[in-house]
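Step 1: inspect the first sequence and its tokens.
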Amino acid sequence: MKNSLQIKNGSVDWMITFLPFGVIVALCVLFFLKPEQSNEILGQIRFFFGDTFGTYYLIIGLGFFLISLFIALSKYGNIVLGGREEKPKFSFFSWGAMMFTCGLAADILFYSFAEWVMYADSPHIAELGNFQDWAGVFPIYHWSFIPWSFYLVLAVSFGFMLHVRKRERQKFSEACRPILGKYTDGIWGRIIDLLAVFALLAGTATTFSVATPLMASIINELLGIDISRSLCTIIILLLTCMCYTYALLHGFKGISILAKVCIYMFFGLLLYVLLFGGRTGYIIDTGVESLGRVVQNFIEMSTYTDPLRTTNFPQDWTIYYWAYWMVWCVAAPFFIGSISRGRTIRQIIFGGYLFGVGSTIISFVVLGNYSMGLQVTGMADFISLYQQTGDLYGLIISIIDTIPCVPFVLILVVLTMIAFYATSFDSIALTASCYSYRKLNKGESPHKLIQLLWCVLLILLPIALVFADSSMSNLQTVSIVAAFPLGIVMVLIIVSFLKDAGRYLEEEKDRNL
């Protein structure tokens, strides 16, 4: 990669850079000064979007999954991202590791331990049967095929734009050019890019605000340090400095190495729990059964809207998860598309499902069913503990405390989460920095100061949310709101890709005549 571009007049899109900065600073001030009022407003906004427009998110989710299968199995699947004879730059393992760790890997690890507990006493689970049969089903459903379809479909769209059409503007708006035409360079393009940047900030804020307190809890458990908002903030700042420095010094090669280290630690943790946790048979049996229920009931689960609002289950959970992954689509698919040069579209989609979905399912099956096995055998009562305290972080620590050699597991968990954050933040910061430039030629990277500016910008809102003591519901609201307009843009990108890819195949056909 060439040296970072110099900051020259006309090269940097200052509106895209500073307008979000100003808005985020204003929001941070509100969260700091009026935390209770801010949380109340967030709750009202969440209800409005989730209750009124919930079906919108569900339709987009199922639609993306179906379109991913269509693209992979159709003529579009044969398109190579790059030259027709070009070979992939990264091995399948390195590519898969970077793809899995560039997005929500830290959250996957976080929720794998105990998400089933949050569903166990849900009225919807009671309607379906019992928590043994269904509490382990929804974590797999919420984190597998539909969420990853968002990433993979957009990844091939961005990869086609970058490696086949060789466009120099690495932005959401550029992916819409086949439909928008000249309007891409006008006000509509600016609106799309601003929406993308705000969504990126919302996704980062939710991720850091939700999972960082778990690392604080683990540090407290290991060292006896009192948990506080200040400690959470320090952890976030240290992560930011580490991630920025690492990305700045090592680029894609460093990210590849770190991603592989993440995967080794991640699967090492899963293997340790599976083999030495004492619940191997239960984990495997329940995991296979839960995956079977997901496959058997996939369409029904994807279209369940609870029209009478008897349980509000889709409004509380499914809609939030689709929105959460949608806001992360601003960064992760660009990164996946960038590292997928030399692969066919079919390889990217099916390879992504194999590595991304496969790794995700294994995580929820092993860690989730380990703790659920203790619950059903009466060796622990995690459901009552969560009902009494509502403290998900304390619950996860309680689960880890039951695993043999607790200090080793705690250290492994916190190191894996930090490494996951590092790779995620590297991809986010790099993608966001590219948004600050009107165009980037092949091999060029943003200026270091621009990257630093985005690192600061990306971390401000999470710190404000931590200080505001935002609840899990209010943190979810940030993603739900940001994802609403972004969903329209995502659909526009897919239509643009299909149009442009169809034109490309016709051009190739004419060249071969």
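Step 2: inspect the second sequence and its tokens, then contrast the two.
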Amino acid sequence: MIYERLEVRRILFLSIIVGIVAGLFTIAFIKTLELSTHFFLTEIVGYTPPKPSGEGGTPDYNFYMEHKWLLPLVTALGGLITGILIYFFSPESAGVGTDAAIRAFHHNLPVGFKTAVMKLITSAITIGSGGASGREGPMALIGASIGKGIATKLKLSSREQNILLAAGLGAGIGAMFRAPFAGGILSAEVFYKEDFEVEALIPGFVASIVAYIVAGSVIGFEPLFHTEVPFPHFSKETIAGFVLLGIVSAVVAKILVKTYFTLRDFFRKLKVHPILKPAVGGFFVGICGLITPLAIGNSYGWIQMFMSNQATPFSIGELILSIFIVILALSLTLGSGGSGGVFGPSLVVGGITGAALSEVLNALFGEPVFNTGVMTIVGMISVFTAVASAPLSTIVLVAEMTQGYNILPLALISLLLAQLIAGNEKTIFESQVKKRIDSPLHKDELKAYILETAKVKEVMTKDVITLSPEDTALKAKEIMAEKFIAGIPITVNGKVVGIVTTSDILKVEPEKLKEVKLKEIMTPNPECVLPDWTLLKVMRILTSKGFGRAPVVSDFETMKLVGIISRSDIGKFLIKKGIT
């Protein structure tokens, strides 16, 4: 008990350290990303992306791209630089950062400070050059690398290492999104489709809040987006509209997941050097950016305009088209091996979906029945929930990012429908597993669960070879050698009176094997078990007493033999269940 209290205190203290370092990396990442964006997009392409209000965005933004035909070349250049860095220095930095962290968690893979630094650089170049990628995914892997790296340096147990990895993941996302509570929840929720890593929840909250404070002291504490969301007016029309948004969000999410994995598999098979693949993907991302600027970078500034009901240069048709173009750009960026994350782009796709649907419905009604800002926020929640199967953290995340708590009643309608229709068989995070019991990390828990639910009668050998007390040691030795068994129950009229094992036989001098009776060397009144006992109970008995097997009797009064069970029988049963 004292050890457990010390372990908890150590984890909480280290969670503070993880939060501090994650907060500092968040600041470094944002500053690096700003420099990268200014160099690639502002200086070369002549395009300054709009910003959300929490990052200095203003309502008077005007879209302008001076050298737009340079965009595909710039996105390709960014992909090429990223490909070189990833190939030579950090292969684990490629693709979706959050999924890499999830995979490291379940399989106890090494991720350290080198990964954090390289993910920061490669993601800043990918996003800054116009790649349709998110910055929260990189911070998830960076935070996870910090947590795992600190725990590894201190030689903590595998369990503690993974708790700090989860806490670091939540800290990175909480600081970047300026949503500390969502970061804490995400540190427990994102690893599973239908479960929580409960042990990581409190450390995740601690690390996320500390990271938010550290990062906020430099980049500010105000929410990422500014909204003035009215309390929703419930009517048949509005409820039907948000039901429809949930259905549409599920369809969009399925398209997003399918498109991403299709293009990722395509690029994996593409016979081009790995260094060049992000450049190829980047070039086509630039083409997407020429069709719609929503496909360039993270597009949070555009989402801010939709939330604020600001005028934008997009018609209804262009908004609908942009949904699919952004999905394509995201899939090209990350599927080709570019660095970044899927959090931000998925939220952007959801935001565009909500904005487009509100415009369509308002046009059909002939009046502004639906608030575009509200539909934008709910679309973000619904699509990402369906994409990532993380409903609780997503709804808290967007509420913190937007301060749009008034919309939660309507958001729940769309969110639950989207989650229900999309299902969770395949999410954007390939390394997610359904429940804790499905995680390699919790293999011992699964083993204990199986042993606790399986009965002796399901595993025992029913056709048992027996001998009598009057049989000779030689006869027992010959049967054991012929049948490859190491123990034989001794019975009288079907009642167990003893057991003889190979070790008992070995104690008899070879020349006396014909003379010695089993009653002289057997273990009398052996430890027996009942058919309805669990394998876990039997395994504990065999382990604690050093036995390899035990006779199975119908009851302890008659001691009638009905079977025998051994450690190897239990081992074979576990292997059959997929547990080694």
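Step 3: confirm your contrast with the notes below.
The first strand starts at residue 95 and ends at 96. Residues 2-45 form the longest helix (44 residues).
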